[in-house]
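Side project, low priority. Logging it here so it doesn't get lost.
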Amino acid sequence: MGEKSKFTRAHVFQIDPNTKKNWVPTSKHAVTVSYFYDSTRNVYRIISLDGSKAIINSTITPNMTFTKTSQKFGQWADSRANTVYGLGFSSEHHLSKFADKFQEFKEAARLAKEKSQEKMELTSTPSQESAGGDIQSPLTPESINGTDDERATPEVTQNSEPRAEPTQNALPFTHSSTISKHWEAELATLKGNNAKLTAALLESTANVKQWKQQLAAYQEEAERLHKRVTELECVSSQANAVHTHKTELNQTIQELESTLKKKEEEIERLKQEIENARELQAQRDSLTQKLQEVEIRNKDLEGQLSDLEQRLEKSQNEQEAFRNNLKTLLEILDGKIFELTELRDNLAKLIECS
């Protein structure tokens, strides 16, 4: 094809040939869109491949215009392909850069066309008459580069030249020699293109190997996420153990409250005994001291209960956070699995196409 100049990535669209209004996507994802210079024909092209399928092969002409229809979308009409191409970019900067390059290559195409016309005018010669009275046409771009029919059947073109005497008709032989050299150059170009296509095929094979390595890396990442999910499930089971511990603490508190009530009843009974017998004053003081100790212990238990309630609330919040993280990880895992499935399908299609 020629030498690659500039390239970018974009989503490719074509105008619907039926409605001429709606856009039809020709690529499932962003693909590489490149500018090429075709040295054999001295033209500039816009090329894009989706796998092994060419979705854009547009020759840039001086009459083409690239139009920005939005901040990230641009289009141009190709009269030769009888269609309108559209490109969706990831940012306005990429769109502006592509438009500037389009204008640059459009100007280069205009200059190349003018130089080609000047060369044709310099190489054109007056018409000569053949020995049988037939008129030979002057050299034109079609006679030098060959028309589409002549490129398809070069032998017929050469054989159709009229036979002439060497002394009177040197021009037809010169013309035939020029065409032969042209086709030899075309053959050499085709061989070069064949070598480049072979290199591109080898590059595609290397890319397939690289994609297989990436797929293996994604599989390892999926296994790591599975292990992480298992760890989170273990954390959830620990939260259940905390809940069980809380239940046991509540039972202990109930038992302590029952014991406290019994102590209060005992204190009342002791008070009655103190009122009935002053000799039990010392015993009453001792019981009062015990009562104070019980109250202090009660306060301590209340503090412990408050601390346990706070820990329980914190544990519930952590458990809720763990659940949210688990859901997020599961969603990410589903997305990764879907991407891996899509990548596997694309690789299968690529292998089938190869």
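Brief comment: Helices lie at 92-123, 141-145, 148-152, 154-159, 170-276, 281-353.
Revisit when time allows.
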